[in-house]
Design goal:
The chain has 10 helices and no strands. The mean pLDDT is 88.
């Protein structure tokens, strides 16, 4: 990928990534609020303002590094606060709140895929304007790049956040599935998850040429995108 192509890839990825993480985090807060917990609402985290959800490493540094490396763009936002004490059933509430974010990404991926299909089906109507060039042609090219990218990045975020690594949603979801008698051991191991993640994400690919996260995301999100998109 040349410099211009890389810059274009980073810009498109950013345009897709920001709304994807915002809706992801708001979905957590909305789910918790629906279950009787006003913590996220009181903290101002039910807003669509991206600034309320930015985590310096997870929202800026990590996805930027992934984009610069030409790999799948993934990351995370500042976790939405919630208090399970408000839930009628703590473990069920934890599970619902944990799944709300990935579910929001899946819904957005479906919307992106449907709009991509609509764009493809409407191509005969675009042909005259596209051939004439100008703003209409530029708009078509942008949408034909943006919509599939939006779909894929939402799928990346969904599957990435399902990994049982703090502060990702998968860690809280997995904790619900772990028998209570083993939770102490799970939380003890969980403390070392982020250092292990950083080694696997950045050191291992350079040392061995194998990127486990890229493989995982291509095998899951990439495969599903291949089914959903034209």
């Amino acid at each position: 990928m040349d410099s211009l192509g890389q810059i274009s890839y980073i810009l498109i990825s950013a345009l897709c990534f920001v709304p994807a993480i915002v809706f992801h985090e708001v979905a957590h807060g909305v789910a918790a609020n629906a279950l009787g917990d006003p913590t996220a609402k009181v903290a101002g985290r039910l807003t669509l303002n991206p600034l309320a959800h930015i985590d310096t490493f997870g929202t800026v540094v990590l996805p930027l590094l992934m984009a610069m490396m030409g790999g799948p763009v993934f990351g995370y936002a500042k976790p939405v606060p919630y208090n399970p004490a408000y839930f009628a059933n703590k473990r069920t509430g934890d599970l619902i709140v944990g799944l709300a974010g990935p579910a929001a990404n899946f819904v957005m991926a479906i919307i992106g895929a449907l709009l991509t299909w609509a764009l493809v089906w409407s191509m005969p109507a675009w042909q005259g304007a596209y051939a004439a060039g100008g703003i209409a042609a530029a708009g078509f090219e942008f949408l034909f790049t943006f919509l599939p990218s939006f779909t894929v990045i939402n799928l990346y975020l969904m599957f990435f956040n399902l990994l049982p690594i703090p502060p990702l949603d998968g860690s809280s979801i997995f904790a619900v599935l772990v028998p209570e008698r083993h939770l102490g051991a799970y939380y003890a191991i969980e403390r070392y998850a982020m250092p292990i993640f950083l080694v696997v994400a950045f050191v291992l690919p350079y040392a061995t040429g194998f990127n486990p996260f890229a493989w995982y995301l291509n095998a899951t999100a990439g495969a599903l995108a291949g089914v959903m998109l034209p």
